[in-house]
Amino acid sequence: MPDVVSVPPEAKPAPLFSLDLGANGGVLAPRTSDELSSWIQKEVSFWTWLGNLSMGSHHEAATQGYRALANAIGQFNEALQYQGSNTSAFNERLANVKLNLSSAYLTHGLPHSTSKLARKVEQLRQASPQRALAYLFTQLPNPNHYQFEARDFQSWSGFIEGLAERTKIADIPKSALRAATEGVDELRTKVEHLIAEKQGELDQLHRTYADLTQSMANKELHRTETWDRFIEDAGKRHEDAIADHEQRMNNIESVFREKMALRGPVEYWSKRQDHHKDYAVGFGILSFILIVMGGGGLAWWASRVFGAIPDNGNPKAWQLASLVIVAVFLTWAIRLVIRLFLSHSHLRTDAAERVVMTQTYLALLEENKLAEEKDRTLILGALFRPASDGMVKEESIPHPMLEALTRLGGKS
C-alpha cells in the first residue's frame, strides 16, 4: 500500500493591519478585505440609531465615535477602488481606516458591539433611544467637555442611571440624596412648565396644520375644476383636429386621384421632351456641319468651274448656271435643316412647359389653392390646349431662280 503524503494546509495571508482595542473589542487583525468589511458593517449597523437622533450637546459627544466609524467605512470603500491596481494608495487608505477605528473606540470611547456597556445601551435603546443616548453620554471617557441638554423624562432617566453607576451615587449620605431629590423635583417643575409651553406651541401647529389642510383642499378643488375645463377644451381641440385631418385627407385623396390621372400625360410629355431634345441637338450639329462643308464644297466647285477661264476671258453661261444651282440647292438644304432644328427646339420647350404646368397644378391642388372651379377650368384649358406640330412647310426651289436660269439658257 503506497504511503499517503499529507498536504499541509494553505498558509493564511498576513493581516492587513493590527489594532489592539483592549477590553473594548480585543485585537482587530483582518486578513482579507471581506473580513474587514464584515467587521465594520456590523459595527455601523449596531450604532446606526445614533445618527438618527438630534438631542443637543450630549448627542454631539456621544456621536463623535460613530462619525469616526462612518469615516472608517468611507476610507475602506475608497481603498477597494485601488485594490490590485495601486498598492500604495490601497495601503494609505487602510492606514486611514485604522486611524479612524482607533479614534472611534479608543479616543472617543465608542463601546464595541460585543462589550458589556454596548449590550446595556442596546437594552435601554429598545425601551427608549433617548434614555440609551443619555446613559451612553455618562459613560464616555471625557463627558465633562460637553453640556447635557435634555427636555424629556427618558433622557433624564438615562442620565441619572448612568451617573448613579459611574459616581456610585447610592453611597452618598442621605442629606445629599435629599438635596439631590429636591433639585430633581425643582427640575421636574421646570420640565412640566416647559412641556406646557411646548404643548401650546403644538396646539398652534395643529391649528396651522388645519388651515393648511383647508387651503390645500381649496386648491385641490380649484385644480379639479381647472382640469375639467382643460379636458373639455382638449376634447374640443381634438374634435377640431380630427375634422381638419379629415379635410386634409380628403384633399390628399383628391390630389392623389388627380395625380394618378395626370401621371400618364406627365410621363408622355417628359418622353417627348427628351425625344425633341435629342433631335434638336442632332439637327443643330448637322446644320453646323452643312454650313462648314457646304461653304468648303462651294468654294471647291467654283475653283474647278472657273479655274480653266483665261485671265481676260469671260465665264460661260453653263459655268455660272452650275455654280448658281449648287449654291441654291446648298442654301435650301441648310435652311431646311435649320428649320428642323428650330422646330424640335420649339416642341421640346412646349413639352417642358406642359410638364411644369402639370406639376404646378398638382402643387396648387395639394395646397388647396384651387377651390373655385373656374380656376381649375382655366388652368386645365391652358394645360390641355392643342399642340402645334412644329413642322415647317416643305420648301421647293424658288421660282424666280428657275426664271433666271431660263433666261441664261435662252441667251446662250
TrEMBL record:
Keyword Membrane: yes
Coiled coil: 177-215
Ranges where the DUF6161 domain occurs: 198-396
Domain of life: Bacteria
Pfam families in UniProt: DUF6161
Alphabetically ordered keywords of this record: Coiled coil, Membrane, Transmembrane, Transmembrane helix
Spans through the membrane: 279-302, 317-338
Keyword Amino-acid biosynthesis: no
InterPro entries xref list: DUF6161
Designated name of the protein: DUF6161 domain-containing protein
